[in-house]
Design goal:
Blueprint lengths: L1 E4 L16 H8 L10 E4 L3 H12 L4 E4 L11 E3 L5 E3 L10 H9 L4 E3 L5 E6 L2 E5 L8 E2 L2 E2 L7 H19 L12 H6 L2 H8 L3 H12 L13 H10 L9 E3 L4 H11 L3 E2 L4 E6 L4 E5 L3 E5 L1 E4 L3 H4 L3 E3 L4 H8 L6 E8 L9 E7 L6 E4 L8 E8 H7 L4 H16 L8 E6 L18 H5 L10 E3 L12 H17 L2
Parallel strand pairs: 1-22, 2-3, 2-16, 3-12, 7-19, 13-17, 16-23
Antiparallel strand pairs: 4-5, 6-11, 7-8, 9-10, 13-14, 14-15, 18-21, 18-22, 19-20, 20-21
Helix pairs in contact: 2-9, 2-15, 4-7, 4-8, 6-7
Length: 491
């Protein structure tokens, strides 16, 4: 087995950089000469910033993009591994209701294929390995599996279903754009997920299911004591796991979406150009970036995660409430792991590669192989406090921990991958963590009312700024489009 630790271009660490393909390297080496004046300046060349810039340019607006990294794509980046597999180091899935993402994929001429869910998944619970069908409805589900097949006491299953039913009712009451207006919002926002479980769950199964939603279920890599039950309910209101958000993949990996958008906009992108300050008047904004350069514009779109916005000096300053909300919106902790095999051997055993369990390291596994099953690819995640502990291990210890859990899920063959790739997003200085941010207890009801409001001529994008599918490509696209509309209104 060849075991490697991968680092993104622009990240720091003791391990070397990984080639991203000649076309992408060439693009990263280029940095357009920045103009001194445009209509709209876009800060951040992730998917959201690229989409905002694309929409503006289609409207005839003169734009320029400033990107801190030496590459574009943000958390949307693919790589060809030593074994020839093409993987997404960041986000990879599209969902059944990700309509904007589907439309974009079609416009770019890319090919989708369904995620592999044929056959049974695996639940590892208290060291017991159980094969079970995926649940067909939320009501029949415990930990996404058919509750009749997970071999747990009926009383425990009944308690778990009751707790999840109550949680779904709370989620249904949350307005995606105004979570502070939910019934009993203040109390829910003061109550951590862990505390709510202590009072309302009564089942380790539902405790674990709610914890799974916080650590990896589309919410952002945080522990159940880090956020309120109101925030978790909001995540399921805006990005419901019941709507199959991991329904399809792209041949050649999703990262090529960002590459193709970047190719359209190459002459309007400046790389290695972190923004330091944004000054604005009633009529324009002045953006300071790089080594003291400036660009003037009528409006600015800031398409970066909330913690990174705090690195920018705003004049006039952000409101006290906005600052406080940003301070209470950290990134979760997330490490993505790929195990690559010659073939998806689990398929011949009528298994689908989807695994969930209360193991030490891997929260889940998912089959990310092509329809042919060759090569076989299992994507996994180490999240929240487990990720913090994991990144303090030696590389040898990390490999052992990953392989032990893969074997627990998928048998001895899982312990002999052709290649093992570990991508630590917590070490990426221009992401600083998981696929989205989260909100700490009390922040929504105390500081959240202005979370989407523009700051004069400065408009927010990035997947975190969306009220529909934040944390996913769909949310990034939605936020970029909405920010572009607000900017156009000021021109």
């Amino acid at each position: 087995m060849k075991t490697t630790r991968r680092q993104l271009l622009g990240a720091t660490g003791a391990f070397g950089l990984t080639a991203l393909g000649s076309q992408f390297r060439a693009r990263a080496a280029e940095s357009s000469a920045s103009p001194t004046e445009v209509d709209v300046v876009v800060i951040g060349a992730g998917l959201s910033g690229l989409m905002a810039a694309r929409r503006l340019r289609q409207q005839g607006v003169k734009i320029h993009i400033l990107e801190a990294r030496e590459r574009t794509g943000g958390r949307m980046i693919r790589q060809t591994t030593d074994t020839g597999a093409v993987i997404d180091l960041g986000g990879q899935w599209g969902g059944e209701t990700h309509h904007r993402f589907k439309t974009l994929v079609g416009e770019l001429g890319l090919e989708m294929f369904p995620s592999y869910y044929d056959g049974k998944g695996v639940l590892v619970w208290d060291k017991q390995r159980i094969e079970a069908d995926m649940a067909k409805t939320p009501e029949s589900s415990v930990l996404l599996f058919d509750s009749d097949q997970i071999q747990q006491p009926s009383a425990e299953i009944a308690k778990a279903k009751a707790a999840m039913k109550l949680f779904r009712e709370i989620a249904a009451s949350v307005d995606p754009s105004r979570p502070w207006n939910a019934p009993n919002a203040a109390e829910l926002d003061r109550t951590t997920i862990r505390a709510w479980c202590d009072k309302n769950s009564g089942s380790r199964l539902s405790d674990f299911e709610l914890e799974w939603l916080s650590v990896v279920g589309g919410s952002g890599g945080f522990d159940p004591w880090d956020a309120s039950i109101l925030h978790l309910a909001w995540t399921q209101s805006v990005a419901p796991q019941d709507e199959a958000p991991e329904a399809w993949l792209l041949k050649g990996a999703a990262g090529q979406v960002a590459e193709r958008l970047s190719a359209e906009l190459t002459s309007q992108i400046s790389l290695n150009s972190p923004v330091h300050a944004i000054d604005q008047t009633d009529n324009n904004v002045s953006v300071q970036f790089g080594d003291g350069k400036r660009i003037e514009a009528k409006a600015a779109i800031v398409a970066i995660p909330p913690p990174l916005r705090q690195r920018i000096t705003f004049t006039p300053d952000l409101s006290a409430e906005t600052r406080s909300f940003l301070q209470r919106s950290p990134m979760g902790s997330m490490i993505k792991v790929f195990a690559i095999y010659k073939k998806a051997y689990w398929r011949r055993k009528n298994l689908n590669g989807f695994g969930v369990g209360n193991l030490k390291t891997l929260e889940l596994t998912a089959d990310s192989s092509l329809p042919s099953g060759a090569p076989g690819i299992l994507a996994s995640f180490v999240t929240a406090s487990a990720a913090v502990a994991f990144q303090q291990m030696t590389l040898k210890q990390q490999h052992r921990a990953v392989l032990d859990d893969l074997i627990a899920y998928w048998g001895p063959e899982a312990g002999e991958p052709e290649e093992l790739i570990i991508q630590n997003w917590n070490e990426e200085s221009w992401s600083t963590g998981a696929f989205t941010s989260f909100v700490t207890p009390g922040a929504w009801t105390t500081y959240g009312r202005g979370w989407q409001q523009s700051h004069g001529r400065v408009h927010w994008a990035g997947t975190e700024a969306s009220t529909r599918w934040p944390g996913y490509f769909e949310g990034a696209i939605e936020a970029g489009i909405q920010a572009s509309k607000r900017a156009i209104a000021q021109l």
